[in-house]
């Protein structure tokens, strides 16, 4: 078959024996803005869909994309990212939308919902494709159990050491099944994980490290942590629900302290969790590729580059993203490329992404658009973090909006008053605003944000009805005792300057509304407050002409 190869520099025609059509296009074809990612090439698979993707490096250092095409495994040489070449295509006796691939050593393991068990490909002969061997494992009879010939469909898989974990599928209610692949050509069944929260056995996907499985239970919407040291008798250690209650995949940080999950639903999130204490798993942060679009996340992977962790994630209609997760409590998107012409909710576009080729090349599989090849730039986020409080009470302020002007970046403070945000690249300086209903806004200019650096800015907002000058106060004295109080309290005041005609003592609530005013005719004195106030927080201040004493918080108990 003749293939037409279009590049920015020339137009060539080249003969390659293949089932696919190679088409290189300009990045401007894509509808949304792309960041820190360079498009190199695209391969299309006419008449086929593509599922997940993996990678392989041969003994000569050539790099390959292993594409899960619906007719069977496709192997594409991407050593030269701008000129990918399909070198092998196994045509399976079945066709399936679902294809998952993992590699250990010189062997690729392919799982599919189409049937045929676990397909094993010996890739040792590459770049010579004539020596590629393939056979299917459909189970065996061992002391751990007899599944000989019964393993047919598998949804996904993961490999840890010399064990392959097989998820979903037709046997054992779709639980996590484990086979020993120390002999890569002849797996041996060693056990399974057949219990869980609410007795949900089905595992959709999972990540395994050092015999610990982080299983994604998609339908009940949680992940479990399972000790698989004893393959015949695994022990569940913990479980945690995820925001979308449709837990699709999991991946672990390099230091094994943070777990990342995806929920395959409309308006979904990439979510991070502190799992350093399995008795107290804590959600740290959530991030969306395109907030407000309703886009659906699929699979995430963690890669360490230059000493920092990044999440490389497929987002269906949003293509893929690169997120700086070096601070998992403040994830910042620092790269992306949209491989699909429209956005929003829907199961089209990017199925999978593979970021682990030694050259740094990223390969992406789109369901209908085929293979994409990219060169990424991994950059550190510029962080802005801090706390927002009430200037009068010192209490944290929830839902205060922090916005970095000239960007689309904003965040809202949580119940502790904390906010955390960032931008993907530094600039000269930035202007940051802090706003909250019922409070005076504040704006700060000249804020420097640097790559990999956390800039901390704690801000106090003043309730409406009070000005910044009032908070500064004067030399008058004001005291309340007891405080807090239940029945009554005494307010003592002392004015340093001459008492003006308009001198008074005012009590306001948290919104700045006056609830009581007491005229003052002497330079010092006391007032006793009894049943005047309902329970709550109030502020007392002295007003003496143009001078205003700093407000003093008082608390009336029930």
Layout of helices and strands:
Layout: E1 2-6, E2 11-15, E3 21-22, E4 37-44, E5 50-57, E6 63-69, E7 72-77, E8 85-89, E9 99-104, E10 107-112, E11 118-122, E12 133-137, E13 141-142, E14 145-146, E15 156-160, E16 163-167, E17 176-180, E18 188-193, E19 205-209, E20 212-217, E21 222-227, E22 235-241, E23 247-252, E24 258-263, E25 270-274, E26 282-287, E27 300-305, E28 308-314, E29 320-324, E30 332-337, E31 350-354, E32 362-366, E33 370-376, E34 382-390, E35 401-404, E36 410-412, E37 418-423, E38 430-435, E39 442-447, E40 454-456, E41 459-461, H1 468-472, E42 477-481, E43 489-494, E44 504-509, E45 514-519, E46 524-529, E47 536-544, E48 547-548, E49 552-556
Parallel strand pairs: 34-40, 34-41
Antiparallel strand pairs: 1-2, 3-4, 4-33, 5-6, 6-7, 7-8, 9-10, 10-11, 11-12, 13-14, 15-16, 16-17, 17-18, 19-20, 20-21, 21-22, 23-24, 24-25, 25-26, 27-28, 28-29, 29-30, 31-32, 32-33, 34-37, 35-36, 35-38, 38-39, 42-43, 43-46, 44-45, 44-47, 47-48, 47-49
């Amino acid at each position: 078959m003749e293939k037409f190869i279009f590049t920015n520099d020339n137009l060539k025609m080249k003969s390659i024996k293949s089932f696919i059509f190679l088409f290189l296009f300009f990045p401007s074809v894509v509808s949304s803005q792309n960041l820190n990612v360079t498009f190199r090439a695209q391969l299309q698979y006419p008449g086929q869909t593509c599922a997940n993707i993996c990678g392989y490096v041969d003994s000569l250092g050539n790099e390959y994309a292993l594409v899960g095409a619906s007719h069977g495994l496709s192997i594409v040489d991407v050593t030269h990212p701008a000129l990918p070449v399909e070198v092998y295509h196994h045509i399976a006796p079945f066709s399936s939308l679902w294809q998952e691939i993992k590699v250990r050593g010189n062997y690729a393991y392919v799982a599919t919902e189409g049937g045929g068990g676990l397909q094993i490909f010996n890739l040792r002969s590459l770049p010579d494709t004539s020596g590629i061997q393939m056979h299917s494992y459909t189970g065996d009879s061992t002391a751990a159990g007899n599944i000989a010939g019964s393993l047919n469909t598998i949804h996904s898989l993961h490999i840890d050491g010399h064990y392959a974990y097989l998820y979903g599928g037709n046997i054992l209610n779709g639980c996590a099944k484990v086979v020993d692949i120390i002999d890569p050509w002849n797996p041996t069944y060693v056990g399974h994980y057949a219990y869980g929260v609410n007795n949900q056995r089905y595992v959709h996907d999972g990540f395994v490290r050092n015999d610990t499985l982080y299983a994604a239970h998609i339908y009940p919407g949680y992940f479990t942590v399972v000790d698989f040291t004893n393959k015949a008798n695994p022990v569940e250690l913990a479980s945690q629900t995820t925001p979308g209650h449709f837990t699709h995949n999991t991946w672990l940080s390099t230091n094994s302290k943070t777990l990342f999950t995806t929920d395959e639903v409309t308006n979904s999130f990439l979510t991070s969790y502190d799992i350093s204490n399995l008795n107290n798993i804590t959600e740290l942060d959530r991030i969306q590729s395109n907030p407000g679009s309703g886009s659906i996340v699929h699979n995430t992977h963690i890669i360490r580059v230059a000493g920092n962790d990044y999440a490389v994630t497929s987002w269906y209609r949003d293509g893929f993203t690169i997120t700086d997760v070096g601070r998992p409590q403040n994830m910042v998107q620092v790269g992306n490329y949209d491989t699909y012409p429209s956005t929003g909710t829907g199961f089209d576009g990017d199925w999978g992404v593979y970021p682990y080729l030694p050259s740094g090349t990223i390969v992406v599989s789109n369901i209908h658009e085929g293979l994409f090849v990219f060169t990424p730039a991994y950059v550190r986020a510029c962080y802005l973090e801090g706390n927002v409080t009430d200037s009068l009470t010192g209490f944290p302020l929830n839902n205060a909006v922090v916005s970095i002007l000239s960007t689309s970046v904003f965040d809202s403070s949580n119940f502790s008053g904390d906010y955390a945000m960032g931008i993907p690249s530094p600039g000269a300086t930035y202007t940051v605003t802090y706003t909250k209903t019922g409070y005076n806004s504040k704006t700060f200019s000249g804020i420097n944000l640097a790559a990999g650096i956390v800039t901390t800015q704690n801000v106090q907002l003043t309730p409406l009805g009070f000005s910044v000058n009032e908070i500064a106060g004067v030399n008058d004295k004001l005291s309340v005792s007891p405080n807090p109080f239940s029945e009554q309290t005494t307010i003592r005041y002392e004015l340093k300057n001459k008492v003006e005609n308009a001198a008074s003592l005012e009590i306001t609530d948290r919104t700045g509304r006056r609830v009581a005013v007491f005229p003052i005719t002497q330079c010092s004195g006391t007032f006793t407050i009894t049943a005047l106030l309902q329970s709550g927080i109030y502020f007392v201040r002295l007003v003496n002409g143009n001078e205003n004493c700093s407000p003093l918080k008082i608390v009336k108990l029930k």
